[in-house]
Amino acid sequence: MTYTLQLYVSDDTTPAQRQAAERLFRKALESALGDAALVAPVYLAYQAIVARYGDTPDPEALTVEERTVLEHWQLAETAAIEAVFGPHRHLDEGSYQIDLPA
Fold it and tell me: Is 100 exposed, middle or buried (0-12, 13-18, 19+ CB in 10 A)?
């Protein structure tokens, strides 16, 4: 399953810079998860957990499998965000959106 990624970055970012940042984000995300093919299923599972338990679920309320998915996604997301925006980024510096085919 494939996915599309859109980074939301500052308005003064050139298209080439945005594309380079998106490649860097993808590479870090896919590397942290172990393979590009894992992004979509792990992201879908993460979204299901958040839909069921909220944006910051209590780890004690999760099953072992849910906790594993949540932790893996959060670590991969952090790695990708840090790869593009740096480890000391501010929330208003940029964000991302992942879209999956229907």
Answer: middle
Residue ranges of domains in the chain: 2-97
| 6-59 pLDDT, tens digit each | 998 888 889 999 999 999 999 999 999 999 999 999 999 999 999 999 999 998
Which residues, in sequence order, are CB contacts of 59 under 8 Å at separation 6+? 67, 70
Contact 42, 72 (CB under 8 A): yes
Q: What is the pLDDT of residues 81-92, one digit of tens each?
A: 999 988 766 555
Residue 5: which H helix or E strand, with range?
A: strand 4-8
What pLDDT sits at residue 102? Answer: 78
How many CB atoms within 10 Å of residue 23? 12
| pTM score of the predicted model | 0.88
Residues in a beta bridge with 95: 8
